[in-house]
Amino acid sequence: MFxxxxxxxxxENNFDRVFAQFSELLNxxxxxxxxxxxxxQKEDAYIKGKDIRTKWITNINTSEAHLAPQDIxxxxxxLEHFMKDNFGGAVLLLCVxxxxxxxxxQDVLHLIQTIHDFAAEYGCVFIVQVSKGTLEKQQxxxxxxxxxxxxxxxxxx
Length: 157
Description:
By secondary structure, the chain is of the alpha/beta class. It has a single domain (7-152), classed as Rossmann fold (3-Layer(aba) Sandwich). It is 41% helix and 19% strand. The chain contains six helices and six strands. It has helices at 15-25, 44-47, 72-85, 96-102, 105-122, 137-146, and strands spanning 7-11, 32-36, 52-56, 90-93, 125-130, 148-152. A six-stranded parallel sheet has the order 3-2-4-5-1-6, sandwiched between helices.
């Protein structure tokens, strides 16, 4: 379903389904990185021993490894370096709405556009999950222009 060097948009309210699809991509040659809101102490329930790196996005000060949602530049830098160091890898972005709540939509769109270009450059798969109905129609359309729509919970294919 997913091709290396491509970027995908999935409209799905249940991120567990998207995470399961993402996990199927991974093998010893394909490393994965997930950007999400799952606390590091709870991520083992999802990762289940797979070689998946994570970035926890949170606005609190904590001793756990995390990244502030306002730090879009650092997130872009981290994702670029993951892709560069793991040619053919896979990145899953599960917290678009949360990032938008701390930044402008335009800033998050620029992040997605940049990561889309990195995915093409480094032969990676980039998947963006958005819950249906959380974005304005114009915002959805802008994402649809940038990414391949790979799933929509409210559309029948």
